[in-house]
Design a protein that fits this description.
Structural class: alpha+beta
Strand content: 35-45%
Helix content: 10-25%
Low-confidence stretches: none
Largest sheet: 6 strands, parallel
Oligomer: single chain
Mean pLDDT: 93
CATH architecture of the largest domain: 3-Layer(aba) Sandwich
Order of helices and strands: EHEHEEHEEHEEEEEEEHEEEEEEEH
């Protein structure tokens, strides 16, 4: 078995858990490779001279069976961008705070490694959205697990975002911005702006305005078989578009096309994990003693 470890900068408090992970993998005689920038980040605290590194799944010295993402949900989104369409399952170990995507607690490291060795885990397939544009924004990483966000560059003006569904006009949103979220992204940015929570296996997109000027405007759920076209204008000619944690600027002349990506991301879940239990735990449902 070959496992790649992906991470970014870690706090000193996370080092004992990384050390436990390395020891557990070595004891299980699992071949371990480190994401090259991460290896450089931690080389002063860990001796990695016996381990090889990789920068993408395609340049690894050996075919990766799994990738372990160390950190929070932000790090998991970076892992997804790196994994791309390779189909390699990702196990997220949460060293951050909320951890919807990195769902394995740091105290469960040994349990998670044992589950991988025994094949005692579930694969949770998550859909992605894809952005197409004339100027090829984001190049080959033009996909997102959580959401695409459009927002203004200047803080003191709103933007007009004209939305078409399969070339039929939907609405012009006069707002601070707009979110197109996947079911996975329904518990992320979209949720904080009033969007609904959707089960990850639903085949939908969520269109959620950010601080709309018209109070009757509400989030809209549509099938992810639909093609969404966006045209943006405002006082300024330049705006921001984000795919998960990656951001670029674009001009009002650019049309943005959003549709379902052809590949999906495979997340590893331990046997006792399920989406509804995660909702209760992360959103503190049931804390009210009357429940």
């Amino acid at each position: 078995m070959v496992i790649g470890i992906f991470g970014k900068s870690l706090s000193d408090s996370a080092f004992p858990f990384l050390r436990e992970l390395i020891v557990s993998l070595d004891k299980a005689k699992i071949t371990t490779l480190f994401f090259s920038p991460f290896a450089k980040e931690i080389k002063t605290d860990f001796d990695l001279s016996a381990y090889r590194s990789f920068t993408t799944p395609y340049d690894a010295a050996e075919k990766l069976d799994f990738i372990i993402s160390l950190g929070g949900d932000g790090n998991m989104l970076s892992t997804v961008a790196m994994v791309h369409d390779s189909g390699i399952p990702i196990l997220g170990i949460n060293l951050g705070r909320l951890g919807f995507l990195s769902s394995v607690n740091k105290e469960q490291i040994q349990e998670a490694i044992d589950a991988l060795l025994k094949g005692n885990y579930k694969i949770d397939s998550r859909s992605l959205l894809k952005l197409s544009s004339h100027s090829k924004l984001f190049n080959e990483k033009n996909f997102a697990l959580n959401e695409l966000s459009i927002y203004k560059q200047q803080p003191n003006s709103m933007v007009s975002i004209h939305v078409f569904i399969d070339d039929e006009y939907l609405n012009s949103y006069w707002a601070d911005g707009l979110i197109i979220a996947t079911p996975t992204g329904s518990t992320a940015y979209s949720l904080s702006t009033g969007g609904p929570i959707i089960s990850p296996d639903a085949n939908n997109f969520i269109i959620t305005p950010i601080a709309p000027h018209n109070l009757s405007v509400r989030p809209l759920v549509i099938p992810d078989s639909k093609k969404i076209k966006l045209k943006v204008d405002g006082r300024d000619d330049s705006f921001f578009v984000s795919l998960d944690a990656r951001t670029q600027s674009f001009r009002s002349s650019e049309e943005l096309i959003i549709e379902k990506e052809s590949f999906s991301i495979q997340l590893i879940r331990l046997p006792d994990e399920n989406f509804f239990a995660t909702l209760r735990a992360k959103l503190l449902w049931g804390i009210d003693k009357r429940n």
